[in-house]
Amino acid sequence: MSAELSEPRQDAWLWRLCATGMAFSLFGLGGLVLRFIVFPPMRLLGGDAALRRCRSRAAITWSFRCFIRFMVRVGILTVDFRGAERLGRPGQMIIANHPSLLDVVFLIGHVAGASCIVRHGLVENVFTRGPITAAGYISNNESTDMLDQAAAALREGDTLIVFPEGTRTPRDSLPRFHRGACAIAMRGARIITPVVIRMSPRSLTKGEPWYRIPRRRMQYSIQVGEDIDPADWTSRHPLPIAGRRMNDHLHAYFERELARQ
């Protein structure tokens, strides 16, 4: 029997189960409210595509911040976010590990105006399609066009959030990054900033139903690391080799940082 299963249920487990159900319902409802109630009148305000995109991202950031406050106040989780003030710079690529379903909520909720590479399935989901389309988030369809679009967004001054694993980290595993994120960074990023996300106990992993909540409250610790200058790598190596070396460096960095918990 695992240590987690042998733990007694703590932190008002039954209430947390009900609150988690409310949170999932609220998230889905929020996506529909943004799509059908918030965004249509915002489009009537005029402005070019970039301005409309900026308004949509601001609305999503505000809604995610409210959602985070709700989860904290009802006792589902706690969050300790350190260094968030260094996120959101033009041309900054934020690279984070992906232990749970909520990681993108925490980052977008703390980085106003950021773009994000999102799983392609979310673009087709009725609850998330509207916000993703309005905000101009980039679909991870694993095409060359996606890499070009992401690099162009960075060159134009967007902050871009990327989860290089492409999916949530399996239980009892360390992150394994695809090289596509570093290829994007080498071609477009002014600066790369790693963000290490820790959570205990692990929950909301890939394929895990929402109602299988942990026996104690989830605790998130999010730490912003030191900036990495892509020019330090491209000046020493040809582009493909620089991307591979950067990917190896990030693997070692995240493994080292996650081992400290």
UniProtKB/TrEMBL annotation:
<dbReference type="GO" id="GO:0006654">
    <property type="term" value="P:phosphatidic acid biosynthetic process"/>
</dbReference>
<keyword id="KW-0812">Transmembrane</keyword>
<dbReference type="GO" id="GO:0003841">
    <property type="term" value="F:1-acylglycerol-3-phosphate O-acyltransferase activity"/>
</dbReference>
<keyword id="KW-1133">Transmembrane helix</keyword>
<protein>
    <submittedName>
        <fullName>1-acyl-sn-glycerol-3-phosphate acyltransferase</fullName>
    </submittedName>
</protein>
<feature type="domain" description="Phospholipid/glycerol acyltransferase">
    <location>
        <begin position="92"/>
        <end position="200"/>
    </location>
</feature>
<dbReference type="InterPro" id="IPR002123">
    <property type="entry name" value="Plipid/glycerol_acylTrfase"/>
</dbReference>
<keyword id="KW-0012">Acyltransferase</keyword>
<keyword id="KW-0808">Transferase</keyword>
<feature type="transmembrane region" description="Helical">
    <location>
        <begin position="12"/>
        <end position="34"/>
    </location>
</feature>
<comment type="pathway">
    <text>Lipid metabolism.</text>
</comment>
<dbReference type="Pfam" id="PF01553">
    <property type="entry name" value="Acyltransferase"/>
</dbReference>
<keyword id="KW-0472">Membrane</keyword>
